[in-house]
Amino acid sequence: MKTLIAIxxxxxxxxxxxxxxxxxxxGVLLGFTGPIESLAAPMKTVINIAAEEVSDSxxxxxxxxxxxxxxxxxxxxxxxxxxxxxxxxAEGISGIIGGACSGATAAMLTNVATPxxxxxxxxxxxxxxxxxxxxRDLFFRTVASDLREGQVMAxxxxxxxxxxxxxTYTNNDFGKGLSEAVRSSFTDMGGDVTIVASHEDGKxxxxxxxxxxxxxxxxVLVVVGYIDQGGLGVVRAALDLGAFEVFGLASTMIGDRLLxxxxxxxxxxxxxxxxxxxxxLSLLADWMGDRIDGRLPYVAEVYDAMAIMVLAMQAAGTNxxxxxVSKIWEVANAPGEKIYPGQLAKGLELLAAxxxxxxxGGSAVELIGGGESAGAYxxxxxxxxxFATVRFR
Length: 393
Fold this sequence. Notes:
The protein is an alpha/beta fold. It folds into 2 domains: 22-145 and 278-371, 3-Layer(aba) Sandwich (Rossmann fold), CATH 3.40.50.2300; 146-276 and 376-392, Response regulator (Rossmann fold), CATH 3.40.50.2300. The chain contains 16 helices and 14 strands. The protein has helices at residues 2-12, 15-21, 37-57, 78-90, 102-116, 130-133, 146-159, 173-188, 207-216, 230-241, 256-262, 279-288, 299-316, 321-324, 328-332, 344-352, and strands spanning 23-30, 65-72, 93-98, 120-122, 139-141, 164-170, 192-199, 220-224, 247-249, 270-274, 337-339, 357-359, 377-383, 386-392. It has a 7-stranded mixed β-sheet, sandwiched between helices. It has a 5-stranded parallel β-sheet with strand order 2-1-3-4-5, with helices on both faces. A hairpin with a 2-residue loop joins strand 13 and strand 14. The longest helix is centred in the N-terminal third of the chain and has 21 residues, at 37-57. Mean pLDDT is 92; it is low at 1-20.
């Protein structure tokens, strides 16, 4: 009997068991398939890089390792998003990075995070209505809301001398919210909106959608859609029919997939995507090196979401959501020593010593009311087959 007890104790204290018990699992729920899969793939790579950076420091919660638990929301399937979040919870996650799309995020926040008191930090969900669902102050984001993007897009249109626009939007919460923000801001600036029409994702042919838009007319067709779904389909059909030559592109349309899908015909079109000209973005690009382009859409935002979550845990001394949620504001905003990409070990060390930090990150994070990020945008234009930066707003 004594021998059996001794063997049991050895097994219980084995390195493998000790290591397993010293893991902090974080759910990463993004649209790895579906309408933004080409944007989500780099985000997954960045999460792994950030988790490795924290784990290898040996400073996180007395040497704990960060283990990302990846799960797919498809971006568009609320039911699957909830099921994926439930499975991640069952695996013992301590927080959620996600979602990337507003509909899936709303479903997870309402049905999973809120009932369990679990922190969520989204790097891409931008619907203003998400704040209305956050009954327990658990939801944060490193990207600005649609209200800000709509204003930025309207300013870009105005500054380019555009007098009239037609708007097409993907028929979901994100599409409705951003299209309304663009419409409202542009008309307030004296512009004319000829039509605001929804389109459905997953269609084989968008000719009839474009015919309706063309009949209304407009100097520019504003596309509030998805780069791997209906947004690309509408742009392609509009070019094929000669209905529009210049497009105003929402952030979810900015990426190489668009250029690959329509080629040089879209030259001169423009849009905006979350981004800054801050020191942090340059440091992020340097830190990522040849592992991933640090300036790709949402790369900075997802790195910052992971960083803020683990730094808040460190500040609280625990991975319990109910405890570290109050530290998120503290680590993300002033006062404190500024922390940039590649400096997570420094941030962990300062927090462990009881010092304050101000996490700036790659996206110049500054949390404002309702857990939103103040946000900044990079205006881009397609020149010589590439997205060229025009300015930051």
